[in-house]
Design brief:
4-stranded mixed sheet; 37% strand; alpha+beta; extended; 6-stranded mixed beta barrel
């Protein structure tokens, strides 16, 4: 993958002034590292959105701050809960010769015959794994091929993943990633329907009517 470059400027605007930056199409952010003082910066919001969609949290970026270059990972992104747009970002500066610990997303590929031929339901219980590696060796994602799930007995665990030789896996290898559950039988569905009906609370109107009847009887 070609190097991803994101331009940034140092900023003095913090707190309430950050709102004005967002209105101007800018994204307030901060860059920090293990030994460095956090630096408030600002980047173009639209450019950051495109880069974040491509890089995620596991790809090294070159952050160009007023002509000074720094290798960073996108560490955290805060979103507007209504517009679902980024409102703040954290960049973590890395040293290319020092091992770092981070998480890498899992990318599911392929098709499971137990799903589309036997009407099973695919269940996934893990979306990312924890690793250690030099920044330049970080994989963007780890693929999980669910085609191996061709019956209801098979599972995929972390031990089944293909991890690059220069990457150290930290997640427990016995952790379940995916499996396919068989469809429910008619008896199970009927029992489930009965359980749902039994748990439905009485309507308020019915409760009021019952109370009236009881008083009338008294």
């Amino acid at each position: 993958m070609d190097k991803i470059i994101l331009s940034a400027d140092l900023r003095d605007a913090v707190g309430k002034q950050a709102k004005k930056l967002r209105q101007e199409g800018k994204l307030p952010a901060v860059m920090y590292g293990r030994d460095d003082t956090p630096q408030p910066v600002v980047v173009d919001a639209k450019e950051f959105g495109h880069i974040f969609a491509k890089a995620g949290y596991s790809t090294i970026l070159e952050l160009n701050i007023d002509g000074k270059k720094a290798n960073v990972l996108i560490q955290d992104v805060a979103f507007d809960v209504v517009k679902t747009e980024p409102i703040h970002a954290d960049f973590y500066q890395v040293k290319m010769d020092e091992v770092i610990r981070t998480t890498i997303p899992l990318h599911f590929i392929g098709e499971s015959t137990a799903v589309f031929q036997q009407d099973g339901s695919l269940l996934t219980s893990l979306e990312e794994i924890e690793i250690e590696a030099l920044p330049g060796n970080l994989p963007q994602q780890i693929e999980v091929d669910i085609a191996v799930l061709d019956d209801f007995e098979k599972t995929i665990t972390v031990a089944d993943l293909k991890i690059p030789a220069d990457v150290k896996l930290l997640t427990d290898v016995e952790t379940l990633i995916a499996k396919v559950e068989p469809p429910r039988s008619d008896e199970e569905l009927e029992a489930l329907d009965e359980e749902i009906v039994e748990n439905i609370p009485a309507e308020e109107g019915e409760e009021s009517q019952e109370g009236t009847d009881e008083k009338g009887e008294e």
